[in-house]
From TrEMBL:
UniProt similarity note: Belongs to the UPF0303 family.
Alphabetical list of InterPro entries matching this protein: PduO/GlcC-like (IPR005624), PduO/GlcC-like_sf (IPR038084), YBR137W-like (IPR010371)
Organism: Streptomyces griseoflavus Tu4000
Highest taxon in the source lineage: Bacteria
PANTHER family with a match to the protein in the record: PTHR28255, UPF0303 PROTEIN YBR137W
HAMAP family reported for this sequence: UPF0303
Protein name: UPF0303 protein SSRG_03987
Gene3D superfamilies: Haem-degrading domain (3.30.450.150)
Amino acid sequence: MTTTPTVEELEAQERRLVFSQFTYDDAWALGSLLVELARERRAPVAIDIHRAGQQVFHAALPGSTPDNDAWIARKRRVVERYGSASYLVGARHRAKGTTFEASSRLDPDTYAAHGGSFPLTLEGTGVIGAITVSGLPQLEDHELVVAALERFLARP
């Protein structure tokens, strides 16, 4: 059983999972790797990568639904607004004894601080996009994205 990560552990993931470059080919390779990991887990997910406001990868696996695309958009908007993983944004609110929905004053039909969207951060530049998964419980969505990023960034 997976334990819920702390805010500090989530922040450490963001500091560690940073790109030296992120091209269209990288988006395809990373998205394809994420599809492979999701298939291995038989995960009924939709996968999305946005870079500089452009969708550069999208896949919907068996068992996913149009609702997953709506969740992707809501989670991605949190990353775009806060520059942090959607799960981390939610965790920061929970650590303060509240919820994102109660304290952000943002429309929950537009923003969702649920796990599954992670910032694409470029060294020396900052957040340039987001990689997002939807279809599993929020911590599993987050962990699937992190696993793909770790594997991708560990390549020679």
